[in-house]
Amino acid sequence: MKKKSIKAIAAALCATLSLGLLAGCGANSEAASGSDSAASGSAAPESEAVKVEPVKEFTYLGMNTGMTTEEYNAYPLVPLLEEHTGYKVKYDQTPNGEDTATAINNIFLNREDYQAIYVSKDQFYSLLAQDALKDLTPFIDQSTNMKEVISDFGWQTATKDGKIYALPRKDARKVSNFAIAFRADWLDEYNAENPDKQITVPSKENGYTMTLSEFRTMLEYFKTKVPQGGVAYRIDPNATVQETIMPAFGICNDWMDVDGKLTYFVDHPNFGSYLEWIQGLYDDGLASYAATPEEPNVVKMMQAGQLGAGRTFHWNAAAIEGSEGTDDKIGYISVLVADENKGDLSKVRQFAAEAYQFYTVVPKYATDEQAAAVVDWADKTLDKDFFRLMVLGEEGKTFTIKDDQYWPILPAFNEERNMADRYLTVCREEDMAKYWMCRTRKTPAQDKLFSRANENIYTTGVKSPIAVMPPNEVYDTKFATASRELLTATVQTMFSNQRMSVDELRQVFAANGGKEVTDSVNEWYSTWDAKDSYNDVKPVK
């Protein structure tokens, strides 16, 4: 990407996200309401140059590491960072759990001695609305790497009225975290016994997909194979949203654009068909639901040989197949497809996640010299060779390259780079998408599941716009209750004889705040200029 000045970026930003993305920060906040120039879409004035001598020491508050603070400061990366950047950084970390937001708010309230603070998206927007953050624009404008390796969209999410108030960190890549694990050996048996009506085996050629009808036929056979106490298909607690099945009904994420409006999955026109299909599995004894965490889940039942298939996460693959290799008896389906789309990769769609979820901010009370140091320190970590060293370590020692792909060398990678993400403030985004794959290849089984689930994710994955929505008071206060009540009703409707109609389920969501939530998120969505470009993969019509 051609290097751009902050003036050029600011002009683009005022015309895009600073209108819509910040609209939900709170109407009573001056920081959230936007200035006249932002509202009109005019470019912000060019930032004034700030020429100061950066301090050489500062304190950085990172996310909780699971280590002690002493271990955090003694990790092998710390001396490398100091030597390369020239800055001595004292590392601290947030408390684990619900105290994080309180701890961060107290830092700003008490003007505590922190110069760089790593915060979540919601925390960033909350602090922005309180006018608590330092304008970093002039320091970023003097940086060497940032403007080249962070996308314009990333800068948009960190911008208000043409000024940049944070260093945005993007998820490593677009990703699907789950697949349907199934007994490949049983499928092979079925195909051998039924040469005239074989089921398509998930493969690279078909994107590791299977049609709805084929999948059901497979489960009918699996029902004859599982021992007593087993089941053909298992659904884990709270997993009534089956991300690997819903796309076959055109539902490609929990919130998606339907005719220009954000629509929760229960209100999607095809939800009734999905509900009926899952109910059919349950009614015919092909599927069961683990109502509590104490009941056997997909992984445990697979381990015990009591299960034909079930949706699971890529980090569970080693528990299913073993940590030393892979098991040919286990296969993976990336996603189910509608029968009419069999073999057509252009019609495959998947749930996908990719967003800017974390930001490094500088308190407004920090000095220019401190802000300059934080930005320069982060910028120096983006030097191409050092960034690879920081994330992966040394080739031949902690990682190796095969066919232009990066693979960890264990246990050295875990010992020296497993916590590298706790020291990252910003990323070389294109490089990180490749480097991060080391973390999905720690066991052959994990690599097998992840690679199959993500075989075509860049051309099939549909993201939820909610992932980049700023704090929204109605959503933040009412969605959890509405979603929880809907989940309870949906579980009962899917996995018992006490059933509600689709309209009744929709009413459960609406009556518990879902209608206000939907109205509120669409008030934001209707003003968001990036809504047409955010998802480069569109749902199949």
From the structure above, extract its key features.
single chain; 541 residues; alpha/beta; five-stranded mixed beta sheet; 25 helices; 20 strands; disordered N terminus
Gist?
The protein is of the alpha/beta class. It is globular.
Question: How does this structure look, described?
Answer:
40% of the residues lie in helices and 16% in strands. The protein has 541 residues and is of the alpha/beta class. The strands form seven sheets. Strands 2-1-3-17-6 form a five-stranded mixed sheet. A five-stranded mixed sheet has the order 12-9-13-7-14. A two-stranded antiparallel ribbon has the order 4-5. β18 (399-402) and β19 form a beta hairpin. α23 packs antiparallel against α24. It is globular and about 75 Å long.
Determine Rg (CA atoms, Å): 25 Å
- Widest sheet, order of strands: 2-1-3-17-6
Largest sheet: 5 strands, mixed
Helix tally equals 25
**In angstroms, what separates the terminal alpha carbons?**
33 Å
Shape: globular
What is the SS-derived class? alpha/beta
Beta-strand percentage range: 15-25%
Low-confidence spans: pLDDT under 50, at least 5 residues? 1-47
Helix content: 40-55%
Query: Could you give the count of β-strands?
Result: 20
Give the integer mean of the pLDDT values.
90
Give the topology, please.
Layout: H1 6-14, H2 17-20, H3 30-33, H4 36-40, E1 57-62, H5 69-74, H6 77-85, E2 88-93, H7 99-109, E3 116-120, H8 121-129, H9 137-141, H10 146-149, H11 152-157, E4 159-160, E5 163-164, E6 167-170, E7 178-183, H12 184-193, E8 209-211, H13 212-225, E9 231-235, E10 255-258, E11 261-264, H14 271-283, E12 287-289, H15 298-303, E13 307-313, H16 317-321, E14 330-333, E15 335-337, E16 350-352, E17 356-361, H17 368-380, H18 384-392, E18 399-402, E19 405-408, H19 412-417, H20 429-435, H21 444-453, H22 457-460, E20 461-463, H23 473-494, H24 502-525, H25 531-534
Parallel strand pairs: 1-2, 1-3, 8-15, 9-12, 9-13, 16-20
Antiparallel strand pairs: 3-17, 4-5, 6-17, 7-13, 7-14, 10-11, 18-19
Helix pairs in contact: 23-24
